[in-house]
Amino acid sequence: MLRRTLLTQNVIVAVGGSSTALAVDVVFVAVLGATAFQMGLLNALSTTAFLLCSVPLGLLIDRVGASRVLVWSTAGTAGFLSTLLALLLDDRLRVETALTLMAGFGVCAVAQQLSQTALVPRVVDASSRVDEPRERGITSLVGRVSTADQVVAVVVPAAAGAALSATGAEPVLAAGAATMVAAG
Question: Contact, 49 vs 110, CB < 8 A?
Fold first, then answer.
């Protein structure tokens, strides 16, 4: 049961992140009129968050626990997306504000990923079968999570693109925020 819960939570977060990334790009270009330089900054934010925050976030996870950090980071991603959507709907969103929100979103996304990975051994220990070696259980669960991420990375952008064409960016961003809330 715990394995399924972790896998489901991972898929929900991956769906929200994939659909949101495409919608944010559309908002930046079509609504905010972002320049090529600003788009480059947007794309660099996720890498920067990973490079600068992975070690401190890992230390935080070790100190306060992966479950807590996962809940906090999932709430953070939902909060950043909800704020972005509210400002967009109120016609007060600016490129600089959106970049700041997406930087926060990126840090929370790194925290989610690290927390999920840190939870794998604990989930396996709590739900392992008697005949299954621990290493095999961990390898199996990490493989399933990775496979789910890869499937989401292929399927969701196509579906999000179709949704963007049909409805615009706002409903896709709202759906992304809703998936983060559901993941929490």
Answer: yes
